[in-house]
Input
Amino acid sequence: MRIDILTVLPEMLESPLNCSILKRAQAKGLVEFHVHNLRDWSTNKHRKVDDYPFGGEAGMVMMVEPVDRAISELKACRHYDEVIFTSPDGELLTQPMANSLSMLENVIILCGHYKGVDWRIRQHLVTKEISIGDYVLTGGEIPAVVIADAMVRLIPGAIGDEQSALSDSFQDNLLAPPVYTRPAEYNGWKVPDILLSGHEAKISEWRHEQALERTRLLRPDLLK
Output
């Protein structure tokens, strides 16, 4: 998989894209990250990529020209399955969406910034808009990392135990059940006996019941 990220703040992406699972996935050749500074496609002598909005609204808007030039240059080199725009009013990122995105080959992620982007970018250049929640951030760099992490960790070989990802919260529209590790008793707090029994069928049944109960209490909307 190749992920190209277009941003006005490339320095924000350096550390998170080179840590933990994302770093190991790159070392294994499973993913390539290419971070591009949108200012490199600006024709302005000050490398500006934003301007005042028509109509007099407050804030600055990312201009269509540098974004179009950047995406066109990337597309001239290869086919991209999706051009994703990070936006608070996009489609909410979910585990099923991450599952689907993880099977793509080439992806562009455009990081939103300022007041937003010229609407023509969203009309003609973007193929998918994704939000990570009903709130507004300074820019789309953090959402871009969230989207990339959600995708890459599902690529076979990215994590040591591939079955682990299949039991994560939301994979089956349920929250994950409680998990425990050594010691079996600490400060009078005990691990449930069933997990120490070695009876795989009963343990599986217990985990499913616990997942259902946690989902009923915390996210009943998932059960609909």
